[in-house]
Amino acid sequence: FRLADLDAIRTAADRVPSQLSAALPGTQLRVETRLGDILTTVSRAALVSRTGVLLLVLQFAVLAAYAIVLVAGMLADRRRGETALLRSRGASSVHLALMTLFEASLLASLAALLAPFLAQAAVRWLSTSGPLAGSRVGAAIGISAEAITVDILTAAACVIALTIPMLGGFGSLAGVRAAIARQTGRTLAQRLGLDLALVVAAALALWQLRLYGAPLTRNARGVLGVDPLLVAAPGIGLLAGAVVATRIIPRLAELAERILQRNPGLVGAMGGRGLARRPLRYTRSALLLMLAAALGTFATAHVSTWTRSQSDQAAYQAGADLRMVPSQRAIAGLATSSTLRAIADVQDAMPVDRLTVDSGRAVRGGPLLGLDAARAASIVLTTPDADGASRGALLSELAAARPAPAGVALPNGTRQLRVVLDAGLEPDFLDPQVERPDLSIFPGVRTEFVVEDGDGRLYRIAGPNAFLNGPGQHVAVELPAMATGPLRLWSVEIGLVAPSGFGATGYLEVAAIETSATDPHLATPGAWVAADLDPAAPDWSWRVVYGNQPPAPARAADGAPWRINVGQGNPSIDPIFGGNLSSTTLRLAVATQPAPVAAMAGRVFLESTGAAVGDTVSATFGAARHSVRIIGAAETFPTIDPTLPFLIVDGPTLVAERFATVNSVSDPAEWWVSTSEPGAVAEAVRGTIDPGVTLISRADRETALLTDPVPLGVIGVLGLGSVAAMLFAAIGFVVAATISTRERLGEFALLRALGLSARELSIWLWLENAFLLLIGTGAGLALGALLAYVVLPVSTLTANGAPAIPSPVVELPLSAVAPVIGIAAVVFAMTVAVLRRQLLQVRVGDVLRGRDE
């Protein structure tokens, strides 16, 4: 697959169903393919990646263009005397222009011939080492026609840039000497105000880039494409910073002159005077250093921000150190949480529910997350988004809104739970010719217990069946030894089914509900203790469920709160029937009433429903309609796409509300685990709890994101380019300082003749170059930091097909400044060494003799 062919392949894939139907008439076909969606994703990812590369390339283009202009200006300054001398000896403007054009063409042609092959070799070298070693990028790299076209155009631009400054140097020797002695303080662009216009354009472009969030826009037909202005915005900003510096540096030079003139001594005053007299010459070398320092700062900030962003993205996508999604074959129960927490290196764990919510016509299928709000603060990974600081307070408020514990507390260490039933059901509605059935041997009584564990989860535990007739029947269930306590009993459910073809009436009475701390597998039975449960208490009630109908209140017999009459007596429930008729279920449960569920709502949910914090809205989730009280708003929450209308609720509150509304009890959809060793815990989970579990590890997600070859390639380009830019700026600064010193050898020789020592001249030049290095480096650091804060939140965001944090936090550590300062110090040392060597050779006679020759 080639990028140029993706649209054609996607179109062909979309035509497959119709082509198959035409080829096989009379056959009903169903074609399922994700190829079109995959190719769309790949195409968009390639477009985003290319856009990111363009953002960087244009910034380097600005630096390269200025480097060419600087070299051209230095050559022109160096050859002013020679050019004027040739002109005075008969050379015409055409002769000089052709000579300059020939030299520029020779240099540009050599560069144009070598550049594509050097680029190809560099990419192949990068693809054989580091993270890109396994991507096989180098094998597919070639020199395309587009690359050759760009190479030729760049060479032509270099020829023009090298030729134009030389054309302006055709003057007399007297004019050249006057120009060297007194240079202009402002450029033509400054006098026309073009630099200020460029600054305004850069500000608008960068503002639009932050406004749109990416340099990609859709045209009138909805096609996603690159916006040239937004792509060029960082480069324009870099260029605007450079032109602003051309106005600021001369003013700073004048300020330095005034400060140095106040101090006693001649050297400082002369150094300040030298800066103020030649501001534009010093500005050129300072600008080169400033641009390189800006790119170096931007590159280091880009690496730090991208690395931090990928770590934050991994934390956001995982939600916790380890997220477990049980398989359909997983065996859940009361012991799951204790078994999980007993694994070595597991610090804590919490169950999580994941449902969908509907509210009105605007919200359909929005995500709803139910988690233990009391544990979430220590398990949910923190992310530096807008809600990072307020999320903990909202979770605490959700935990505080949790209803009081319901049900009956079971004694610590309870291993068995049983109900003693007295069943007095007799056959009824009989055909006289049919033999009367014996209900004392028919197991038509089904029992279930609903128990709450220490995590606020409800579990149904089915017991053995009892008979429809018989006193003192003991129905016991085993509770796991590792059940997370304290345990509470919420409900005892008794299902009644008559034999096929018969009905039954009578009574059913719960004689006792008892607990035991004895292991059921021991030969010696233990003592049973009656549970502290009073069905006549206001917090307990009887309810009856006929088939799939909603629960209805059921009244116990007068004076016997444990007894329910079936089809006889008053009050009573309907008789039970067998055959195809549904069963009847009696439920002795806590009398919980539906109440508004406290929730943290996403901004999109609030905007879609028109609700505000403090409002109560109606929402449907878990197959029932509920009232939701919004206690706070959030932009994001880990694992949830922030563009969707979501709700975050307390897990135990959600469990209690669903049980009170529709008697629903379900296993957790996920488990979020806090651990320092996710790999070891993952292996233990697969071996002891669920072999088919789906595990999402923050460490694995972070590794996958940090080894993505596309952004790593961009970082490599940026890093290598920044190093090359700094080295070129260092060489350019030293050369510019050397040329400037050579042009003033006569001045320095005269000063030596008047009594200044070589040491004083060295201090003079050191002051000049230290000022330029300080200004260039400082301005470059500031400009690089500004570009980083403007561009990086747009360029480093990578969703990778999963929920993403809306905007990463820009990292600008000390490491972003240290390389630039280090290179500046090296440049200063090199400059001092070169200039000192030149100053030691300054003699008046040598200078005059050299001019005569």
Account of the protein in words:
- It is a single chain.
- This protein has 853 residues and is of the alpha+beta class.
- Helices cover 50% and strands 18% of the residues.
- It is built from 24 helices and 24 strands.
- The strands form 4 sheets. It has a 9-stranded mixed beta sheet, sandwiched between helices. Strands 6, 8, 9, 11, 14, 15 and 18 form a 7-stranded antiparallel beta sheet that branches.
- α3 packs parallel to α6 and α12 packs antiparallel against α20 (709-743).
- The longest helix is centred in the first third of the chain and has 44 residues, at 35-78.
- The radius of gyration is 41 Å and the shape is elongated.
- 36% of the residues are buried.
